[in-house]
TrEMBL record:
Keywords: NAD, Oxidoreductase. CDD domains: LDH. PROSITE patterns: D_2_HYDROXYACID_DH_1, D_2_HYDROXYACID_DH_2, D_2_HYDROXYACID_DH_3. It comes from Ligilactobacillus ceti DSM 22408. Belongs to the D-isomer specific 2-hydroxyacid dehydrogenase family. This is D-lactate dehydrogenase. Pfam families: 2-Hacid_dh, 2-Hacid_dh_C. Residues 111-297 form the D-isomer specific 2-hydroxyacid dehydrogenase NAD-binding domain. The keyword Cell membrane does not apply. SUPFAM superfamilies: Formate/glycerate dehydrogenase catalytic domain-like, NAD(P)-binding Rossmann-fold domains. One of its GO terms (molecular function) is (S)-2-hydroxyglutarate dehydrogenase activity.
Length: 330
């Protein structure tokens, strides 16, 4: 049995190697993502292991059917870049890694909020100019705030626990309520209630057509003046231009963005020679009220190991049993 893995980064290689040694299954590693030009590489293998933000090409699934490969195991959660109808047409099973490390993302989102509240970026900019004055950059404490959590899956639940540890009041919205949290009375009746009450709004939900640009000019207007926005989920959840406008007006006091709706040609690339050719991104990057990071909330040793090993184990399970606990499409 042989697997082929694409978009393999250097830090992932030891985990592929240890799994291969433990199972006796050869895994051929490639640095490139899957494209129409390289799908022929999968011939002769029993499973494809992928990880990419770019669209998985439809040609991949046709080639998998032709080659008799039954499973594509992705090393992340989201499947919005996979045409599931095309995969199903070609009888390809899809698995994902639904919980590689909820703590990694939840912890990161809170570290970003702490920087916003203590105005770290603004103090850093002053210190670069040898200006060491404090005023008027006074901070806030989490325990004095109402935190609005949108999405109470695994990541959202961890975030809620951490915020409670700080002593904050936490409210939440999710169309699919967690029974335990519901018993605690944490949920508000609708998003408008959350927008009106929350001092901080943190997003922990997937990208779907229904929640595209859920934070927009209209919803920002419903929020408290001076609200903080945290997004470690998906860039498409926020209308970026509307966010920038809200920050300029003072409606939004600060935002921490680990993801951006037009990030595909920016994040995980070295653009030191060319610079970023996206005026909106460049504008945000220069704004001291906005903290931007290149989609790294997940990026811990624990998470990377889990992403690799769970994807590999899922592929093996599909081949041996026809199913896996991480099925997305069968």
């Amino acid at each position: 049995m042989k697997f082929i893995a694409f978009a393999v980064r250097e830090e992932e290689q030891p985990y592929f190697a240890s799994w291969s040694q433990a199972t006796g299954i050869e895994v051929e590693l490639h640095k490139d993502i899957i494209t129409p030009e390289n799908v022929a590489l999968i011939q002769g293998f029993d499973a494809v292991i992928g990880l990419q933000a770019d669209q998985y090409p439809d040609e991949l699934f046709a080639q998998m059917e032709e080659s008799g490969i039954k499973v594509l195991a992705i090393r992340n959660v989201g499947v919005d870049n996979i045409h599931l109808d095309v995969a199903k047409k070609h009888h390809v099973t899809i698995t994902n890694v639904p919980a590689y490390s909820p703590n990694a993302i939840a912890e990161f989102s809170i570290t970003q909020l702490l920087q916003l509240l203590r105005r770290t970026a603004e103090f850093n900019a002053r210190m670069e100019r040898d200006d060491y004055r404090w005023t008027p950059l006074i901070g806030k404490e989490i325990r004095s705030l109402t935190i609005g959590v949108i999405g109470t899956g695994r990541i959202g639940q961890v975030a809620i626990d951490i915020y409670r540890g700080f002593g904050a009041k936490v409210i939440a919205y999710d169309p699919y309520q967690n029974p335990t949290l519901a018993q605690q009375g944490i949920y508000v009746s609708d998003l408008a209630d959350l927008y009106q009450q929350a001092d901080v709004i943190t997003l922990h939900l997937p990208a779907t057509p229904e929640n595209y640009h859920m934070l927009n000019e209209k919803t920002f207007a419903q929020m408290k003046d001076g609200v903080y926005i945290i997004n470690t989920a998906r860039g498409s959840l926020i209308d970026t231009q509307a966010l920038v406008d809200a920050v300029k007006k003072g409606k939004v006091a600060g935002a921490a963005l680990d993801t951006y709706e037009n990030e595909l040609q920016i994040f995980n690339y070295d653009l030191g020679q060319t610079g970023v050719q996206d005026p909106l991104f460049v504008e945000m990057k220069a704004m001291p009220q906005i903290i931007m990071t290149p989609h790294i909330a997940f990026y811990t040793e624990t998470a990377v190991e889990n992403m690799v090993k769970i994807a590999l184990a899922s592929a093996l399970s599909v081949i041996e049993t026809g199913t896996a606990e991480t099925l997305v499409l069968n």
